[in-house]
Design a protein that fits this description.
single chain; alpha+beta; five-stranded antiparallel sheet
Length: 170
């Protein structure tokens, strides 16, 4: 029986495969604790391919030597397993290479008064000022802390509004 790290050596040393494919195999052939460490650090590469004409994400290289794939872009789990490397083609680092991915959104917070007008906190003067646009706070706790501070001063009716903000593609 082959040791786990020897099961994918043919892919690692197949220089016909792109370097990002071989790097993916190396990272996923490591012991689980090392692979998990790379994942937690955001350094685990993603790999996509075509299988029977459909795009998929390779989610697992099992200790038994088979490949597991998902037809969605999820980090864990699989839709099919026991796939051989030779059955995969058109490797890429993106699900749909050449297409512009949709912009991601992130939650941000802003402060409005009871009439719905945006307000901003000026730290220099420690005053709450009107604002034509929402001033975004990435942490809900900071926005709430500002509204509580003004509630304590008798300015009531301030609200924390949750907004979905588009991120620029990196």
């Amino acid at each position: 029986m082959l040791k786990h790290e020897d099961r994918y050596q043919s892919a690692v040393y197949n220089f016909d495969l792109p370097a990002f494919v071989r790097a993916f195999v190396v990272c996923h052939s490591l012991p689980a604790v090392e692979t998990t460490t790379l994942e937690e650090a955001g350094m685990l590469p993603r790999l996509y391919a075509s299988y029977k004409g459909r795009r998929c994400r390779i989610t697992l290289l099992s200790a038994m030597g088979d490949v597991c794939i998902s037809y969605t872009d999820r980090d864990h789990g699989y839709d099919e397993r026991s796939i051989m490397w030779s059955e995969l083609s058109n490797f890429a680092e993106e699900m749909h290479p050449g297409e512009t991915p949709p912009k991601a959104t992130m939650r941000q917070y802003a402060i409005a008064d009871k009439r719905g007008f945006w307000r901003r906190y000026d730290e220099k003067t420690e005053r709450l000022l009107p604002s034509e646009v929402p001033v975004l706070y990435p942490e809900l706790a900071k926005a709430r802390r500002i509204t509580r501070m003004f509630d304590d001063l008798g300015i009531e009716g301030l609200q924390v509004k949750s907004l979905r903000v588009m991120q620029e593609n990196a």
